[in-house]
Amino acid sequence: MTIRHVVTWRLAESDPTLKAAQAAEIKAGLESLRGQIDGMSALDVGINTIGPATNWDVVLIADYADEAALAAYQVHPAHVAVTGIIRGLVAERSCVDFELPAL
Hints:
Residues 3-98 form the Stress-response A/B barrel domain. By secondary structure, the protein is of the alpha+beta class. The protein is built from 3 helices and 4 strands.
């Protein structure tokens, strides 16, 4: 059963130029995880560039083979390093993990 992991962040920075740079830094850090995590089958990161300012700033959508793969990702050293950077930049975080239905 594939697990989809969706995380959104609202950045603490209010200056649009600095916020854009921080969002790009987060995106690059998360995208660097591709190919490093066993059981991760997909990873996409998006920056809110279209919607209103009330939208969240950055989203991660990643798929894992199963709950064990998601759990391994959470403690993987590369992921822990990226989350250390992210925590210093965000005001809020939300997350949803769910099973994808078989097609």
